[in-house]
Design goal:
Layout lengths: L16 H19 L7 H10 L7 H8 L3 H13 L3 E5 L7 E5 L1 H21 L5 H22 L15 H10 L1
Antiparallel strand pairs: 1-2
């Protein structure tokens, strides 16, 4: 068993993984929310649609678990997305108690339309990082998320999609057209 990383002599805010992650998110989230201020969606609504994008997440429970949203506010958010034609709800044919969620064509379209702006935001923020450093950061954060999953495991499943929002072929066609 490896020695513990933190000891009384080295635990400080500057070296605290939790503190640094919280400070990062506390600074990034308002910027992302501001970016969506004049859009047809809020940032929370967009992340909900992105989570449903590849079709792996199909229930409200899995959605709540994967975007770290509480059930009550997520129900209202889904209601809004259904009302606006971005998401459908349907009873499962296998289990009538279960309601399946799916993106509509309109929902897919809005995710794809806004994705370049989100990618630009992150690319601007990560300009001082090499591609290798970004890959390492992603790998380490993924490992940390998976490590935390063991302590939060309920009936919901963790899904981390690797399906690109805008496939490379479609992006090449989109760039050619503009």
């Amino acid at each position: 068993m490896p020695k513990p990383y933190y000891k009384p002599g080295n635990y400080a805010m500057k070296r605290s993984v939790g503190y640094l992650m919280r400070m990062s998110m506390n600074r990034v989230l308002p910027q992302l929310e501001a970016m969506f201020q004049d859009r047809e969606l809020t940032f929370s609504q967009w992340t909900t649609l992105v989570a449903l994008y590849d079709g792996q997440i199909t229930t409200a429970g899995d959605l709540a678990h994967n975007i770290c949203h509480d059930g009550g506010s997520l129900t209202r958010l889904i209601d809004q997305m259904v009302e606006r034609g971005y998401v459908t709800r349907a009873r499962s044919e296998k289990d009538r108690r279960s309601v399946k969620l799916a993106l509509t064509a309109k929902g897919r379209s809005v995710v794809e339309a806004l994705a370049p702006d989100v990618m630009n935001f992150w690319n601007t923020l990560l300009v001082g990082f090499s591609h290798g450093e970004v890959d390492t950061l992603i790998a380490l954060l993924t490992k940390l998320v998976i490590a935390t999953e063991g302590s939060q495991r309920g009936s919901a499943k963790l899904h981390m999609s690797d399906k690109p929002i805008i496939p490379a072929k479609r992006e090449a066609v989109r760039k050619k057209a503009s």
